[in-house]
Amino acid sequence: MISRSTDSCLIQFAKAPLLGAVKTRLEPTLGKAGCVALHRALVSWVFSRHLPVGQVDSEVWSDRKHPFFDALLTPAGVPFRLQEGADLGQRMSHAFANRLPHYRNVLLIGSDCPGIDVDYITAALKALQTVPAVLGPARDGGYVLVGLNRPCPGIFEDVPWGSGRVMEATRQRLIANRLQWLELDALADIDRNEDLHYLVSSVERELFFKKYLTY
Fold first, then answer.
1. Are the C-beta atoms of 128 and 100 separated by less than 8 Å?
2. What is the pLDDT of residues 119-167, one digit of tens each?
3. Which residues sit opposite 13 in a β-bridge?
4. Any residues with CB less than 8 A from the CB of 57 and at least 6 apart, and which?
5. Domain ranges in the chain?
6. Beta bridge partners of 151
7. What's 8-211's CATH class?
8. Nearest Cα to 55, choosing from 124, 150, 143?
9. Phi, psi of 112 (to 5 degrees)
């Protein structure tokens, strides 16, 4: 039984904060402990940005349970759910298939983009009033948000995850399914060394570092 208070659901995907399992491309710069600290900071920051939206029921989905999620979610009363699937595409497909029967709109975001905010999420929901799908492009060729208001079989199949071709491959899947979509402004993911400058140049960097990044 799913408890819902709105007609839209926002799912935040977040890996468990384990040494050697998160932000691995940044390990030469930050070390394993630094990567875990950055990941925890980003998960918490992104969570804090969508929680006040009010137009969505927020949920966090991860690959495994971890005390970090209990401490983050319990005070806010936000559900935690386990992902299912052998790869990212299958896990995303499962999340949409699980929630679309219960919600008019479903948005899915990762935990790598500190630029997602209330306005961005509101724009995504507005887009879904006119088209079946909405995408928030990432500057590295992926995307930071995907939203659907109906099933889209195969949209996440055979996508070259982790490459700069993710966004283009997804566009092709939407075309193959004859679905219209809208795209939001491109935002930065924090995955590589060259992305770290965003954290030290963004408007809200001081709040981010003071509130979350303590390593």
1. no
2. 999 999 999 999 999 999 999 899 999 999 998 888 998 888 888 899 9
3. 61
4. 4, 5, 6, 8, 9, 10, 103
5. 8-211
6. none
7. alpha beta
8. 124
9. -110, -5
